[in-house]
Amino acid sequence: MLFHLLITDTIQHRYGPQSPAAYTAIALADAHLAQVLRAIDDAGIGEQTTVFVTSDHGFAKPSKLVNPNVISAKPA
Fold first, then answer.
1. How far, in whole angstroms, is CA 37 from its chain's centroid?
2. CB under 8 Å to 14, separation ≥6 — which residues?
3. Strand, coil or helix: 68
4. Residues 6+ apart with CB under 8 A from 8
5. Residue 71 in this model has a pLDDT that exceeds 80
6. Are 1 and 51 in contact (CB under 8 A)?
7. How far apart are CA 66 and CA 13, in angstroms?
8. Fewest CB within 10 A of the end CB: N or C in the chain?
9. What's the CA gap between 69 and 73, in Å, rounded?
10. Structure pTM?
11. Exposed, middle or buried: residue 50 (CB in 10 Å: 0-12, 13-18, 19+)?
12. DSSP state letter for 69
């Protein structure tokens, strides 16, 4: 099973890492992962289950945001 938590990536791209929104998104992802781990335990399959938690990249706090679609989205 693949369980992809998009919220952390999306929020950190939008609001930056170490922002209040980012910490909230990480807490939500943590809660969702806890639910999955509880479900594994409740199903009695913990001994034959391996869980990998990965990330696609890290984050550095942006000093400037560029939104190129803003220009093209404005009415002429």
1. 17
2. 21
3. coil
4. 22, 25, 26, 29
5. no
6. no
7. 11
8. C
9. 6
10. 0.70
11. exposed
12. H
Token output for 66: 């560029």
Structure tokens, 76: 């002429």
Q: Which of 74, 27, 30 is nearest to 53 (CA)?
A: 30
- Give the Cα separation of 40 and 51 in Å (integer): 10
Taking the CB of residue 49, how many other CB atoms lie within 10 A of it? Answer: 13
Distance CA 4, CA 55 (A): 10
Q: Could you tell me the two tokens for 67?
A: 């939104």
Sequence-distant (6+) residues with CB within 8 A of 53 are 33
Supply 9's token pair: 């990536």
pLDDT digits (tens, 9 = 90+) for 39-64: 999 999 999 999 988 877 777 766 77
Report the residue count for the chain: 76
